[in-house]
Design brief:
By secondary structure, this protein is mainly alpha-helical. Helix content is 41%, strand content 8%.
Length: 61
Amino acid sequence: MEKVEKIDCIKNLEIFAKKDLLPKTPEFFYMGSGIMSDGYDSYDWTGFYEQTEAILSGFNT
């Protein structure tokens, strides 16, 4: 039996409870021909990763 990762458990809880527990990633779009919607390169991912790590550290598997 495979070990279940914390993030997978939390995603299952989100589906069951129909409530967001993890921060949502911003949506960027690839428009083809190498064109991407604005913001991906300039988005500060630090806060997103810090929030995710804080949530993951609070759960036990």
